[in-house]
Design a protein that fits this description.
The protein is α/β, with parallel strands linked by helices. It has one domain: Alpha-Beta Barrel (TIM Barrel), CATH 3.20.20. 41% of the residues lie in helices and 14% in strands. The chain has 17 helices and 13 strands. The strands form three sheets. It has an eight-stranded parallel barrel, surrounded by five helices. A hairpin with a 4-residue loop joins strand 12 and strand 13. The longest helix is centred in the middle third of the chain and has 25 residues. Ligand GBH binds next to loops.
Length: 467
């Protein structure tokens, strides 16, 4: 054998290395994107119902009225998960199914759906992981007090969280309070072009205050879950951090990347882990900074059991002595590869850098990749096959870098692919497909794509390689 053969063989051997024992493999969805049944069993509208019915808000004026009918087809969907070998399922709860009105009276039929779903999952030996808030705020909260503009929203959210933990907690493997602050606040409260619900345009000052109420709501929810749920129920949140990648793997660039992460997370994760807003955030906000108390900051920093990371696209950062902060961003530049979304640049090493930089900055006890995936313009062939080789490439490359993170000892415990199936992709409606299973929206048929077969193999071997 030549040296090159040896090198090739050991590289291959590395790729065949398994993920940690007990590594948890799953898939994720969110209520408004899959459930449909928006007027059934006492559910009241959320801001996404209102927004998607506003003319021009969503591509082709599409909405989640029907979505993928998961509300009715969940037994079929759980059977599909089982066939694929999934070990866990991350779903979200539609708050307005549980509390259809502002009066705090729960709706038993709404709760019952989630009980049935969770029981079905457990019977199939699939761990249920629940997200409490994936952007579909009850419309009553928007109408009454302007949603997260008000402190009341944080308190109402904590009440809802405590209620769910008490009712369902003993059957859950974990709870995520909030999914991605930036998407419902920075994109929902400010007109950035591509609007998200509720589609308003508030001042900087009000946005900052709403951000504060949202992280405060997370902290109060953690406390409510601990107080009302069974002992030992694990709780965290799922955040879309800026997925910083140092332009080169050198100590200066890595230090710059770590500082960029803390600074760019200055209003969300930094206070959750450090109990303080990042000084650069407060300085930039100036007179528009949020108003808060010490007690609120302490609540925001309530200890969590794990951090969920939604990882899609990279943000490159360099060490830059010329910049006042010592770092600066670097654009991907022309010709950079992208998947089927304008923002979805491909940078698989985010799967290594996110766990590493987050661990170096804040040392969370455990990390789950709560979302990772891509849109691909999938279309069935005449034989009803979906050859999404682009998604297989995307997932495979990302999983290899995740393996590196695990191999170097960062505490990554599991991975949820986004998404189990094609679904209502927010402002893009049904025009973008993120599923590993194709959905025919006429018939609601689910067809596993090539990527589902790929992912099943990874789960079966607990490794990317070795097939
Ligand atoms: C996830 O967020 C969501 O949790 C999920 O519901 C959704 O279906 C999935 O992504 C796919 O989109 O326009 O340049 O400002 C993804 C994270 C964060 C990606 C905001 C788009 C906006 C980039 N998203 N980001 S930009």
């Amino acid at each position: 054998m030549t040296d090159l053969d040896h090198a090739a063989e050991s590289t291959t051997a590395r790729l065949f290395c398994p993920y940690p024992r007990d590594f948890l493999w799953g898939a994720a969805t969110a209520a408004y994107q899959v459930e449909g049944a928006v007027n059934e069993d006492g559910r009241s509208p959320s801001v996404w119902d209102t927004f998607s019915h506003r003319s021009g808000a969503v591509a082709f004026d599409q909405n989640g009225d029907r979505a993928t009918e998961h509300y009715h087809r969940y037994p079929e969907d759980v059977a599909l998960m089982k066939r694929l070998g999934l070990q866990s399922y991350r779903f979200s709860v539609s708050w307005s199914r549980i509390f259809p009105e502002a009066n705090g009276v729960p709706n038993p039929k709404g709760l019952d759906f989630y009980k049935r779903l969770v029981d079905e999952l457990r019977a199939a030996d699939i761990q249920p992981w629940m997200t409490l808030f994936h952007w579909d705020l009850p419309q009553w909260a928007e109408d009454r007090f302007g949603g997260w503009e008000s402190r009341d929203c944080a308190h109402m959210f904590a009440d809802y969280a405590g209620y769910m933990a008490a009712e369902l907690g003993d059957r859950l493997s974990g709870v995520f309070t909030i999914n991605e602050f930036m998407c419902f606040l920075d994109k929902g409260y400010v007109d950035t072009g591509e609007l998200f619900a509720p589609g308003k345009n508030v001042s900087k000052r009000i946005l900052n205050q709403a951000r504060h109420h949202a992280v405060y709501g997370h902290g109060l929810a953690v406390q409510a879950i601990r107080a009302s749920g069974p002992a030992g129920l694990k709780v965290g949140l799922a955040e879309n951090i800026p997925n910083i990648v140092p332009i080169l793997e050198t100590p200066e660039h890595i230090a710059a990347a770590r500082e960029a992460l803390r600074e760019l997370s200055g209003m969300y994760l930094t206070p959750i882990f450090e109990g303080k807003y990042h000084p650069a955030y407060l300085e930039d906000a100036g007179d528009d900074a949020p108003i808060f108390t010490d007690d609120e900051m302490a609540a925001i920093a309530s200890p969590i059991d794990f951090l969920g990371l939604n990882l899609y696209a990279p943000t490159y950062v360099r060490h830059d002595p010329a910049s006042p902060r010592g770092w600066s961003g670097v654009n991907c530049g022309p010709g950079y590869p992208r998947m089927d979304m304008p923002w979805l640049a491909v940078g698989p090493s985010i799967m290594y850098w996110a766990p590493r930089l987050v661990s170096e900055a804040w040392n969370p006890p455990a990390i789950y990749i709560t979302e990772n995936g891509c849109a691909n313009p999938d279309r069935p062939t005449q034989d009803n096959e979906i050859m999404d080789v682009g998604r297989v490439m995307y997932l495979q490359e990302h999983l290899i870098h995740l393996h590196r993170a695990a191999a170097e000892g960062y505490p990554v415990k599991g991975y949820f692919v986004w998404s189990l199936m094609d679904n209502f992709e927010w402002a893009c409606g049904y025009t973008k497909r993120f599923g590993i299973c194709y959905v025919n929206y006429e018939t609601q048929e689910r067809i596993p794509k090539l990527s589902a077969e790929f992912y099943s193999g990874v789960i079966a071997r607990n490794a990317v390689g070795g097939g």
